[in-house]
Amino acid sequence: MKINGGILITIKKPDFMNSKFFVDEPGNWHLKEGAPADVQKEFEEYMESLNTIQDEPGTIDSIRVSYPYGD
Questions:
Q1: What backbone torsions phi and psi does residue 34 show, to the nearest 5 degrees?
Q2: pTM above 0.70, yes or no
Q3: How far is CA 60 from each of CA 18, 53, 57, 63, rounded to the nearest angstrom?
Q4: Contact yes or no for 65/71 (Cβ under 8 A)
């Protein structure tokens, strides 16, 4: 669960994390060779989503930043 601006958000654990092909090494998540195509696709989409900045204008890591830093 994550609290974002006072709103509780439930985040579903991706299915690939339950796969026998998923290797959960800290800082080195990867899939073992032979992972099914659907597991590979979900893993790649999830990893790409981590690189996507979803901040709205005026926010940093979804935290509202007042400008010019005096409010």
A1: 90, 5
A2: no
A3: 32, 10, 8, 5
A4: no
Could you give the percent of the chain with pLDDT greater than 90? 46
How far apart CA 3 and CA 16 sit, in angstroms, is 24
- The per-residue DSSP string of 9-58 comes to E--PPPGGGGSTTEE--TT--EE-TT--HHHHHHHHHHHHHTT---PPTT
- Say if residues 16 and 46 touch (Cβ distance below 8 Å): yes
Instruction: Tell me the C-alpha distance between 18 and 27, whole Å.
Output: 18
**Cβ pair 21, 27 in contact under 8 A:** no
Six token digits for residue 30: 């990867």
